[in-house]
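Box 3.1 A note on notation
Throughout this textbook, protein chains are presented in two layers. The first layer is the amino acid sequence; the second is a token string describing backbone geometry. Keep the layers aligned when reading.
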Amino acid sequence: IVGEDVTGADNDPEKIRTALQKLTFLVVQESRMTETAKLAHVFLPATHFGEKEGTYTNRKGRVQKVNTALTPPDGVLQDAEIFIRLLDAAGERVGYSSPADVFGAVAQEIAAYRGLNYAAIGSQGIQLGGDAAG
């Protein structure tokens, strides 16, 4: 479970808690110790929104950069760093390690992002299917 407190996402949190407790192995990646995280066999501490660098795309298709505002505590990693390390430990090498690299991979795989690159997003963002001024 990544970044979601599923026990609080249902009208019957006790039902969810009971289901999670039946699991033989639960991994939770989260920026805080939620009720769901407390049930995990393995907890992977992840950065909070203000500690992340990367991009997001809003509902209107505008891609914008996220810049770190705070330095995360020692041992706390960004989501992509955690995923890359897990893939590496499983023997799956990926060709990227930075937010720009990840964005490049997205631009290669997802048609709506083709032709975009991390540097072109700029400080104002860029509209999918448009230009930087869009």
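The longest strand covers residues 62-66. The radius of gyration is 18 Å.
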